[in-house]
Amino acid sequence: MIDAHETERRLAEHCQASQHRVSPFHCAYNYTSRGPELRGIDAGFQPAVMEVLGWYWEDLHANRQIDFEMILRFAHELISTVPSIAILLSQMFRFVLIDEYQDTKEIQYDIVAHIMRAGVGRTNAFVVGDANQAIFGSLGGYAIAQAQFAADCGAPFTAKSLSVNYRSSERIVGYFSNYHVMPAAISAEGKDRLFPSKITYDHVTEARDLEDALIGLLRYNIETAGIAPREICIVGPQWIPLAVVTRRLVAALPEYSFDGPGIAPFARNIDNFFYKLARLALTEPSPQLYVRRLRWAGEVIAEMEHAGVSVKNISRKSLLRTCNSIEIGEDDGLTYLDLFFDELFFQLGLELADYPNLAEHREMFVGDSQKRIESLERGGLQGITDIAMFRRVFASRSGITISTIHQVKGAEFDAVISFALLQGMVPNSNDAHVDSANKLLYVICSRARKNLHLISETGRVNWRGDPYNPTDVLAAYPFAYDPIPDEEA
Questions:
Q1: Taking 60 as the threshold, does the pLDDT of residue 261 lie above it?
Q2: How many CB atoms lie within 10 A of CB 146?
Q3: Owning domain of residue 10
Q4: Is 173:165 a contact under the CB 8 Å cutoff?
Q5: Nearest-5° Cα angle at 90, 84 to 92
Q6: Is residue 166 part of a domain?
Q7: Quick one: how far is CA 331 from the chain centroid?
Q8: Which end of the chain is more exposed for a tag (fewer CB within 10 A), N or C?
Q9: Which residues fall within 8 angstroms of residue 302, CB to CB, at 6 or more apart?
């Protein structure tokens, strides 16, 4: 199975052979129960994209490889054409638990439905999620209607609703409830229920002054409101403007640290063997991390066994002891990892060349990491190659979090600051439906416990040179916002 980075590389190669200016961006697809489906591509351009994807699929077939979407495709084909598989699975599993159902794909719903129908009452399902947070439509996810899923499964579903919010203040809950797509009565009942939340909306600051506005809000929340830096999150719709903002904030606020998956200095490919090994290389032995590192060691051993390594003399504890004993005197993070991998394989008595699958994983991990570092450095992030930056990827959250809207889903912070809330970014120009904007704003605003600061900066223009305007549904909300803290001063 190839990872996302290898998929992009292969698609880029095939796009070069196309005469229709197809790029890997255009080739994003997902399988449905009816076949492959392109994401947000005009009908007239689809044949050119499908031609490139055809070459890509032939390439994978010739090399006996599949990507993630093809796992779902072949699983669906098997369960649809071999009835005994669904029957066997229904006998094995009494319960199917589906979390975040609103991000589930149509083909995944259909796989579950086959198992449920075959179970004829033996198999039950518990499905949980929030249709108001269905923001992964561009990846094929959607919130299926209860009646439709019940009909597909041949089983009745009892609807239950959670109406109590234990996270946010009453004022925050009241505010984000405006962005409901599916009606839901929510009441605040947590310890911060009566907190006098500040909710601000800045639609006058120019993009060139955004850094100053963010610094003002950060200082207010930390120095005046007494909120810890680790409990603050800055949210943006895209990584490019986030990287630029991060670079400037790091320089302007050296007294604070910043955390975020978008500024990870190496490829965060969780399926890559050497990414899993890097977790052990970059974390120090400690009682707090012992159980987690023990689990990581188990995952590494399982991957080694899958690759053909004899692991009968390697236990999770012995692997941790070996990793803990390795000392590398190197400040460059990627070089450090390279030396660590060599030393570990030497101490385990293994030759990487004897295991082609692992060798391929290492080549992809190093190559993708080098590309990521180059990209971050072009974006202006300095010191990204330092071993300290590498170690921070797996360290406990200690600084101000930087995140995209999609990656912040599920997290919570005392204060949330969101910028670039502009029509064409939130939502993006390919998905300008009002429901999409409501869902994105719902996710952003419901992450906050105490304070919420929204910014639609002026002066940004799109690729055509047209100015961005504030997100329509945000601009149309007649809320009694608090004065921006700097204005109060």
A1: no
A2: 14
A3: 4-71
A4: yes
A5: 105
A6: no
A7: 29
A8: C
A9: none
Domain boundary among 48, 71, 94: 71
Task: Quote the CA–CA distance of 107 and 33 in Å, as a whole number.
Answer: 5
What is the token pair recorded at 279?
A: 């977790």
Question: Is residue 206 within 8 Å of 230, Cβ to Cβ?
Answer: no
Check whether residue 245 and residue 332 sit in a common domain.
no
Kindly report the pTM of this predicted structure.
0.78
Say yes or no: 422 and 404 in one domain.
Answer: yes
- Distance in angstroms (rounded) separating the CA atoms of residues 70 and 61: 11
CA 229 – CA 219 distance, rounded (Å): 10
Which residue from 240, 71, 18 is spatially nearest to 27, judged by alpha carbons? 18
Q: Report the CATH number at residue 201.
A: 3.40.50.300
Q: For 233-252, what is each residue's pLDDT tens digit?
A: 999 998 777 877 887 888 78
Q: Which of 336, 352, 379 is the last residue of a domain?
A: 379
Could you tell me which residues come within 8 angstroms of residue 377 by beta carbon, excluding any fewer than 6 positions away? 384
Q: How many structural domains comprise the chain? A: 4
Whole-number pLDDT of residue 472: 95
Residue 283 shares a structural domain with residue 329: yes
* Residue 487, pLDDT score: 47
Count Cβ neighbours within 10 Å for each residue of 75-113 and write b for 16 or more, e otherwise: bbeebeeeeebbbebbeebeebeeebbbbbbbbbbbbbb
> Over the stretch 292-339, which tens digit does the pLDDT of each residue have?
999 999 999 999 999 999 999 999 999 999 999 999 999 999 999 999
Same structural domain, 475 and 437: yes
What's the pLDDT score for residue 53?
96
Mapping DSSP onto H, E and C, the string for the chain reads CCCHHHHHHHHHHHHHCCCCCCCHHHHCEEEECCEEEECCCCHHHHHHHHHHHHHHHHHHHHCCCCCHHHHHHHHHHHHHHCHHHHHHHHHHCCEEEECCHHHCEHHHHHHHHHHHHHHCCCCEEEECCCHHHCCCHHHCECCCCHHHHHHHHCCCCCCCCCCEECCCCHHHHHHHHHHCCCCCCCEECCCCCCCCCCEEEECCCEHHHHHHHHHHHHHHHHHHCCCCHHHEEEEECCHHHHHHHHHHHHHHCCCCCEECHHHCCCCCCCCCHHHHHHHHHCCCCCCCCHHHHHHHHHHHHHHHHHCCCCCCCCCHHHHHHHHHHCCCCCCEHHHHHHHHHHHHHHHCCCCHHHCHHHHHHHHHHHHHHHHHHHHHHHCCCCCCCEHHHHHHCCCCCCCEEEEEHHHHCCCCEEEEEECCCECEECCECCCCCHHHHHHHHHHHHCCEEEEEEEECCECCECCCCCECCECHHHHCCCCCCCCCHHHHC
> Do 253 and 284 share a domain, yes or no?
no
The answer to whether residue 168 sits within a structural domain is no
